Amino acid sequence: MQASVNRKRSECYEQGFLTLQAAGRPCAVPLDAVIEVLRPLPIDALTDVPAYLLGLSVLRGQPVAVLDLPRLLGQPGEAIGRWLHLRVGPRRLALAVPSVGRVEHLDQLDWQPLPALFEGDAARVVQQVAQRDQQLYVQLNVMRLLPDSLWRRLEKGASAE
């Protein structure tokens, strides 16, 4: 049983990550979740939503939620330079970030469970941390970027139109 768990865990990490900077720290998103990197597009703002949910935009003909990653991580006010169009299970969203780095194979890093570095929404989306070249990378859990309650609300609003 343990060998099976270790094999599945190692398979999970034998992938590339797209690195980016947000909230003053290097972050990593699993490459298999990234559809494309693009310049920011127009956004239709929403009311009564958390500040990190900027609104909706249309990507590839589909409405998607746009999330401000620095604000989600507790650092509002960073200029947004790129969007990551992400696959989140059967859904899609855009993650607004200050800058995008490059594809890295970070599977050799010693990823550790999250220490108590983040609070609130940030604690929900930061999955693990690892150190590389004196920098602490945070791995984002794309499946938890937007809570289910907000997904349902957005989907209900889209079906009402």
UniProtKB/TrEMBL annotation:
Q: Domain (CheW-like): give its ranges.
A: 14-151
Query: Its GO biological process terms?
Result: chemotaxis; signal transduction
InterPro entries found in the cross-reference section:
CheW, CheW-like_dom_sf, CheW-lke_dom
- Lineage top rank: taxon: Bacteria
| Any Pfam family matching the protein | CheW
**GO terms under cellular component:** cytosol
The protein, known as = Chemotaxis protein CheW
